[in-house]
Fold these 3 entries.
Entry 1:
Amino acid sequence: MDWVLFAIFLASCFAAGSTGALFEPGEWYRRLSKPSWTPPNWVFPVAWTTLYLCIAGAAARVAPLEGSHYAMAFFALQIALNTLWTPVFFGLKRMGAGMVVLVALWIAVAATMGTFWTLDWIAGMLFLPYLLWVTIAGALNYSVWRLNPEPQPN
Amino acid sequence: MDWVLFAIFLASCFAAGSTGALFEPGEWYRRLSKPSWTPPNWVFPVAWTTLYLCIAGAAARVAPLEGSHYAMAFFALQIALNTLWTPVFFGLKRMGAGMVVLVALWIAVAATMGTFWTLDWIAGMLFLPYLLWVTIAGALNYSVWRLNPEPQPN
């Protein structure tokens, strides 16, 4: 493992993850009707920290491999979409637009996992929890969006 | 040029650029004191569209080259930071935090340009306008931040 390379990928995850601290759920999210299976708030930063370590490790394994160009393009796409979701959902409070971003993110993560897997199965495995979590996040975004009337954008 | 690869990188730029439509400058930005050299509003989407086409093209040239792993890691970092800036500045209206993101973005863009240049000088050249624009954006963020008392975060 090239740790400098890992650190750069982890920095890209940190940029994405910083949105969780900058755009806090706050009163608006607390008051929303949520499905019974909504994870408690403390689960989210723990899950994301774990996932970011996994995907940065996966990227550091795959990047130096020959033929990793599509894998790297999909990685860039998913990290940009990941950075986008929190400001749209918690910043703008636009649950429908958040759903669009999440569907795009899910596709990008699946494509990243698929291309990683063909190059290095361990890297592919390291993306699996991320895809599962984005699936849960998508189900949660959808449920919350359906359970609550969409507020006007700020 | 692999056009599918180009399209994936351009999609990552589109995710970053969509923040410009989602988090509009609006009344708050209009009322801020701005330096005399502030570009008119219409320049920003034109500049960003051009820059995104250039950097997606550069990435599609560099990604398939041997030894492009650092270049790809820096590309992922800069596109995540690029996605982050607009929501922080125009969404949260946090000019100081926006400055921190812009400084990090500048460093990431410079590192991306440097690593691209060693692999393919044309790709490096395609990043130069982006670095210049981020420098201008940084100077503008700094000036606006200094000229206006920081409002409370939302």
Entry 2:
Amino acid sequence: MAAARFDPQDPGFAERVRASFDRQGAMHTIGATLTSVEPGSVVIELPWSAGLTQQHGFLHAGMVATALDSACGYAGSSLMAADAGVLTIEYKINLLAPARGQRFRMVGEVLKPGRTITVAEGRAYAIDDGREKLIATMHCTLMAITGRDGIRH
Amino acid sequence: MAAARFDPQDPGFAERVRASFDRQGAMHTIGATLTSVEPGSVVIELPWSAGLTQQHGFLHAGMVATALDSACGYAGSSLMAADAGVLTIEYKINLLAPARGQRFRMVGEVLKPGRTITVAEGRAYAIDDGREKLIATMHCTLMAITGRDGIRH
Amino acid sequence: MAAARFDPQDPGFAERVRASFDRQGAMHTIGATLTSVEPGSVVIELPWSAGLTQQHGFLHAGMVATALDSACGYAGSSLMAADAGVLTIEYKINLLAPARGQRFRMVGEVLKPGRTITVAEGRAYAIDDGREKLIATMHCTLMAITGRDGIRH
Amino acid sequence: MAAARFDPQDPGFAERVRASFDRQGAMHTIGATLTSVEPGSVVIELPWSAGLTQQHGFLHAGMVATALDSACGYAGSSLMAADAGVLTIEYKINLLAPARGQRFRMVGEVLKPGRTITVAEGRAYAIDDGREKLIATMHCTLMAITGRDGIRH
């Protein structure tokens, strides 16, 4: 993961990210919490729940991706201008191990910020009986949007 | 999308897929229904709901991916042996347009089946005021698993 | 693959694409020829050669990708404005079968054109003893660039 | 990038990787050299050359991918059994900046080795007037193949 430090353009980035997170119905549904918002780096956590599972009782890959996509998107958003919205253009996720655990931690980090295009990476960890294991990696491309109806941060 | 027709190894593939789908807590949570199960081709539909949204009120990209991943995975599973489980190794999703609509239709199709590795493609459509629009494409790599504890179809 | 028909913005798109292709040293090196340039659809062909192989004597995946990336990029470029340059932001390639054959055909098609972002898909076929086989699929995201030094079509 | 250290199964991994690299016609064509082979980590370098360019004179994205794919593939191969061949199933590349420079360094590292499936990551750096810049990232899925005709390391 990128170890780079970034300077935010918008000093109010953390409040802006938190307010946007609270508007995501999907984050409420999956029981996710925003546990860290730093410039270019965001952490989201959620507990296991039966409503998020695939057929073997592990977290569904799509639910892992839902939380990871939000972590990456908000990592990108944290470095954007105050009036920019962020859209995920595409992402790829590699599922390294079954999402088995009681709790999950998703870390999104900006690899390269840009005026229009930002590239971010994510890591998903499962916490199973106190041990943390890397279960998925995400690589995503984000676009900053300004002045488009219905798209805000 | 692939127009190829495939011969299933397991004559009971449709019941097997339906039973597995019913065990996915995530599909219940997102309100998804399995509307078609053909050899190498599966359709999943779901209605918009506030609990699935991102900050602009559209379907969260992760929720689109959750349904699309299940459609692709079950398309692959339909061509596998009766005792094989299916795991998603990785997928990529391109989000072509905001997921704005009252209803969503996810089509998963096998591009190339294989003994170990199967490649599938997905298309997500939003139905908005009666018009259907392509909103996302998925490309995913699946693995057939046999004889591993805790992994079944 | 997309069956859509697109209207080009630039009536001189085919000449523009051909002139750009001729400036790609990499296309000369791999022996590629531009065999079709239609709005949103481009075909590139090349023969097998020992200088393009991996360790088993098949075409190297990177060389398949090189030709496929050009096919997708020029498919996108064909729909862009006359003064726009095209950059590949990212692509994913799935290698479905070894690239074994005497000749290879790469088809790039636009799935969704856009003012800034264009999404394209590619298919690579190997022609082996007269039979054509799908060996790889590509999905890529392109960006139109205008007014940036050193970037032209 | 992964900082993990891995134990090779095959004590002769480095010679095996070097011998395979020498059989890749594509590596000769692009002027690539294998500059480091460690367990789970491989570095490949190459100079700029006119025969590897796209229309702006930068390294063609496909050529960056060719070298990066080999770096990732051999990183995976270094941890496999002596009689296993390695196939790239799929990869994704994000192009972060134009490949402008006199020399290029490609680093491939295993993120998660496996009996069948190995996941690796790559970083491509351009060295331009003595300064090194990250220009691309790759994420790829490899498969170990044994006992298949025509596929060896």
Entry 3:
Amino acid sequence: MHNQDPQNQTSQQQMSVVTLGVADLTRSKRFYVDGFGWRPVFENEEIVFYQMNGFVFGTWLKDRLAADSRREAGGSAGFSLGHNVATEQAVDTILARLASHGGRLLRAADAPPHGGRRGYVADPDGHAWEIAWNPAFPISPEGYVTFGL
Amino acid sequence: MHNQDPQNQTSQQQMSVVTLGVADLTRSKRFYVDGFGWRPVFENEEIVFYQMNGFVFGTWLKDRLAADSRREAGGSAGFSLGHNVATEQAVDTILARLASHGGRLLRAADAPPHGGRRGYVADPDGHAWEIAWNPAFPISPEGYVTFGL
């Protein structure tokens, strides 16, 4: 399926940090702290970090992120972040909460072809979140999510 | 620091899926499978999934992602993904491996103000990855990453 690595220089299958550019930290926190109900593990005047399920989530002033990465926004082929919930009903509840805390509904919840239920909402900086109920993906009490069919 | 939630409708502090739009799955796999050395847990003609440290990483044909999320690429304030490595030397090794497997170096490795070492590389679809050695962030043998100062 792929080339073997003769020198065994592969790297751990692990993503450490997801960092989103934001224009205004207070506006962003309204969505993540008041909307999702998440708690920062660290914050200062330019960045807010959240400890997630096995990695760190950062919201960083977009100009700082662009300068650090030598990368302006808009150069990628698009992305979305997923937040899976435990019940079908919670999809609509969370979408509505996020939309009332600075989010913008992109797609109202409905059933995707693979089953379950999902909708999309953009955070105040235009980052797309899919809120999904997907019974095929187990979620541990600690929030660790496993692929399933 | 934030409003209390009187109805206790907060949602688990958890990200289930990170999905990147890609133009060509074979080209993308050269970067992730041959460059990083990661192994898909599932793939078909439109998507490749990787089981990560507590969540699922997907690379999906960008037109499908845009249609599903009702969201064209380029509408967000920028983002980067981080991959932390165990040693200072590994930063340069992995950056070079990724650059030779379809990646484009955005920033050569150097020392950030907070210490450690990092550089940035874009995947074949323009998604920015920071490859970092950051001794303050513990990484478990299973790849779970914890925020540290």
